[in-house]
Request: fold
Amino acid sequence: MKIFSSRLWVMAMCCLGTISVSAQEADKPKYDAHVLFHPLFNFQPGSEYRTGSGAPGPAYWQNRADYKLNVALNEKEQTITGDVEITYKNNSPQALEFIWLQLDQNSFNTESRGGKSTPITGGRFGNVNFNGGDAIKSVSVQQGKDKAVEANYIITDTRMQIRLTNAVKASGDVIKIKIAYSFKVPEYGSDRMGTLETKNGIVYEMAQWYPRVAVFDDIEGWNVLPYLGAGEFYLEYGDFDYAVTVPWDHIVVGSGELVNPAEVLTADQRKRLADAAKSDQTVMIRTAEEVTNPSSRPKQSGTLTWKFHCTNARDVAWSTSKAFVWDAARMNLPNGKTALAQSVYPAEDGGLEGWGRATEYVKGCIEFYSNYIHEYTYPVATNVAGIVGGMEYPGIVFCSSKSRKDDLWGVTDHEFGHNWFPMIVGSNERKYAWMDEGFNTFINFLSGDNFNNGEYKDNQMGDMHRLAPVMFRDNADPIMTIPDVVQPSNLGWEAYYKPGLGLKILREQILGKDRFDYAFHLYVKRWAFKHPTPYDFFRTMEDGAGEDLGWFWKGWFFENYKLDQSVKEVSYVEQNPQKGSVITIENLDQMAMPAKVDVEEISGKKTRVELPIEVWQRGGKWSFRVDTQQPIKSVTIDPDNQLPDINPQNNTWRPVKFAPTEAN
Ligand SMILES: [Zn+2]
Reply:
């Protein structure tokens, strides 16, 4: 999901948040090493499902859901009607007497929990004045060699429970669930799906469009948090075959791969797609001029059924419109593999300032992430311009049709970054937004620096002193907060920036790039297409990097501990600088970090001292000796502003009276 704020908002927050630490407050000793370095953090033992090292254990299991879907869009009624067949496999060691499904469309209704918990002021995820939701026509289940039978089910808000006569047995038993349903398409579904009127027709962005199985796991059993709006999704992996029937003049794009191009594309379009698959430059598949020309469709009346297949995904989404301009280019993946980047957008949003470069952005970020983290796994990556500000689905993203230039790069890069978190690494977004948004924000920093020689490099995240007052706002929620519990105005910081910057600090200031990258890659490798918890991440990072980071996870992710390093005093050994100097630094607030200290002598000679986190294990004050020749002109802690120090005013020591040596 797109970050709530624009970059400008970050700037504004930084300006607003000038810190005022009163002298009295600063004097109180807030730091306690016993609290930060508590030995019982992360003390729960591992299990045969998840080991103490953070890896999936020898008996790790997860359930699987394969989907077959057939739906049709009725443009006049603005409805989707169809059916889904779910093949659900119970790999757990426990028989299941019932199955929980998610009917997320039910949230898009004034009477839903999401609707009723929408503040009167509305808000981004608000769902008011719309009476949508799934109309369920039939539900049947089929087990073993038995015939399909009508299912016994209940619906409570966005959840459906199917109560079974015969349990789905442990360790591999399968049940088929078939549901016929329809829903009225909301214009604006919590900024995750909806419709947009454009010059040449409506753009439909379809997601949460079919009943999906909830995750049953070894941590919580059934994960049944309702869909309220802010919390995203937690879904099982499986293969998808889906068919979408739309009016003849529409173009449909979707997760995975189009499997019947001969039926739905013109010969010209198929030829251009083949050309695009060999081209690093963007190739037009359907130009702006062709959009209103009926000959750009293989038939000129009735409907067409577009069929897609998507392998090993946790969800699928699609988009359709008669207004789409369409272009595409090849992506070059590691090991010589290729995939197709493509964009669809209204003609009025094209051009090099706008969506005319969208495919170039898709290609740029996916090639980067494929090299840095894990190879992109779908044959196609599609960027859709529509009403949704920015939302990710496997192999397809919805970005605002109004986005231009760096804004369009930023949202495209962010939404496709999600293809790694949570699409490849399948964490529980509804509970832990930071495990996808935060990790994604972190890799976005790297991708932004990389794209087109830094064309859209973001310099705002470099000066941590400037960011500290915002990061450590008094009303901040801890990162470890359920997204529906985070104050809406805090979500941008708590789910995106603070965890993202935390990983940047961990990489650049605590572990170093090599150790961080090794452990981070290990996490992705271990948990690709699986369901990691926060502890699986913490433990993998600690094991892979070889560092006990309990203090860091605790202070940064679980608490709102602030950082305030300072230089306390300087003295000379036997009052003689030539015999060396003793520098005393302090850690004044609850968080701690390794320290970098620059010592400058009056001669201009500079010495940099780097101290590990362990100097803060016995208390908040630390003295160390530096070889000097001359009196000291200044001592500065964190001289490069690389740590979020809440009070940088106390970071530099200067002698009370310093007279420079006279020139000859
Ligand atoms: Zn996001």
The CA atoms of residues 507 and 513 lie 5 Å apart. The chain has a mean pLDDT of 94. The first helix runs from residue 7 to 16. The pocket of zinc ion is lined by residues 1, 414, 418, 437, 440 (CB under 6 Å).
